[in-house]
Design brief:
CATH topology: Purple Acid Phosphatase, chain A, domain 2
Structural class: alpha/beta
Helix content: 10-25%
Largest sheet: 6 strands, mixed
CATH superfamily: Metallo-dependent phosphatases
CATH class: Alpha Beta
Strand content: 15-25%
Number of strands: 11
Order of helices and strands: EEHHEHEHEEEEEEHEH
Number of helices: 6
Length: 217
């Protein structure tokens, strides 16, 4: 588990479901259009530039899945170069190409200890992007946080006030919205907030949410 204490030179931010380059769906309203953009590229560059407005190079930005869709490795390199944050920590979601191919690129095993299989070991760093796998736990300023692309009904230490930060639902799941009193769980996705959320912004939301004990705990 990562233990992070914020400082004047390093703050912690969270977001999810950027969907850079996403063009589809076919036969429906494209995501970039529903977000109010002129094209997938317009959406992609605006999202990166918005992140740069808030997240400084030494800050930490957690991205909880679905970084891009309909993209390619060359574009991923372009976007990582444009992103100022040098601590871009990501989870896998349900749309994992092409960055999954970069993480599992040929020769990655040379970075690992002898006998260790590449597909099972995290963290893995590519340029300024570090992948933490499909699930991660982190403590920020002493607050226990579970990170996942998907929402949970219960999560580690949820009955003791830990948080669950997730994405995937693009704001459509009532129990993970900021106004929900289901428990200390929050969808931090781009479609809800149109920006990365700072730890303090999330704390302000979570302070209004009750601790829910929904099972035998």
């Amino acid at each position: 588990m990562l233990n992070i204490t914020e400082s004047d030179t390093s703050k912690v931010w969270f977001t999810s479901d950027l969907h850079l380059d996403h063009q589809g769906p076919k036969g429906g309203t494209p995501l970039w259009e529903s977000r109010g953009y002129e094209s997938p590229e317009d959406m992609t560059l605006n999202i990166i530039d918005t992140c740069n407005q808030f997240v400084r190079p030494n800050d930490i930005l957690f991205m909880l899945g679905d970084l891009c869709l309909n993209s390619n490795p060359l574009n991923i390199d372009r976007y990582l170069s444009r992103l100022k944050c040098q601590n871009f920590w990501c989870l896998f979601g349900n749309h994992n190409n092409p960055h999954e191919k970069l993480i599992y690129r040929p020769g990655r095993d040379k970075l690992l200890a002898p006998g260790v299989k590449a597909n099972w070991v995290y963290p893995v760093t590519y340029k300024n992007m570090t992948y933490l796998g499909h699930y991660h736990e982190v403590s920020v300023n002493g607050q226990m946080i579970v990170l996942s692309h998907y929402a949970y009904q219960v999560w580690y230490e949820s009955h003791h006030g830990s948080w669950c930060l997730c994405g995937h639902s693009h704001g459509s799941l009532a129990t993970t919205r900021p106004e929900s009193d289901y428990g200390k769980i929050l969808d931090v996705g781009w479609d809800l907030f149109k920006k990365p959320l700072s730890f303090q912004e999330i704390k302000d939301i979570m302070d209004k949410k009750p601790v829910q004990k929904v099972d035998h705990h």
